[in-house]
Amino acid sequence: MAGAPKRILKEIERLNRDPVPGIEVSSVENNIRYFNVIMGGPSQSPYQGKGAGGRFKLELFLPEDYPMSPPKVRFLTKMYHPNIDRLGRICLDILKDKWSPALQIRTVLLSIQALLSAPNPDDPLANDVADQWKTNEKLAIQTATEWTQKYAVDAWTAKPAV
């Protein structure tokens, strides 16, 4: 990790020392800017899953000009969420125009976890999911729960190999 920006090293150190509840972060050995993330679905949300909790795999990459520009984050686990599209891209203001260099990896991950608790169909990335959320929220929540059970429970019972 010699030659790595001090800011990134400090953030990694803090993530290791004081982990974010419900989120596991591991840096890739040969690339200090790339992270594997396993995020637990928030309780009382369709992403918690029934019985076994939902565990979603994400990738997080810090661009060369980080912290002047936001991290690139996407879900690798298939999701049914109005603010996450089929490619796993996330519609979240702090990942776009509301980014500030004062924010950190930790803040970004907590914000994504909060987005799972409170989907915003009025600012969608997946228009079809947002439409369903607006017209039949009960069915949308049921579908999100089913997708969590199907894609985010059994596949991630073990930590990722890094």
Automatic annotation (TrEMBL):
<dbReference type="Pfam" id="PF00179">
    <property type="entry name" value="UQ_con"/>
</dbReference>
<dbReference type="InterPro" id="IPR000608">
    <property type="entry name" value="UBC"/>
</dbReference>
<dbReference type="GO" id="GO:0005524">
    <property type="term" value="F:ATP binding"/>
</dbReference>
<feature type="domain" description="UBC core">
    <location>
        <begin position="3"/>
        <end position="153"/>
    </location>
</feature>
<comment type="similarity">
    <text>Belongs to the ubiquitin-conjugating enzyme family.</text>
</comment>
<dbReference type="InterPro" id="IPR016135">
    <property type="entry name" value="UBQ-conjugating_enzyme/RWD"/>
</dbReference>
<keyword id="KW-0067">ATP-binding</keyword>
<dbReference type="InterPro" id="IPR023313">
    <property type="entry name" value="UBQ-conjugating_AS"/>
</dbReference>
<keyword id="KW-0808">Transferase</keyword>
<keyword id="KW-0547">Nucleotide-binding</keyword>
<dbReference type="GO" id="GO:0016740">
    <property type="term" value="F:transferase activity"/>
</dbReference>
<keyword id="KW-0833">Ubl conjugation pathway</keyword>
<feature type="active site" description="Glycyl thioester intermediate">
    <location>
        <position position="91"/>
    </location>
</feature>
<protein>
    <recommendedName>
        <fullName>UBC core domain-containing protein</fullName>
    </recommendedName>
</protein>
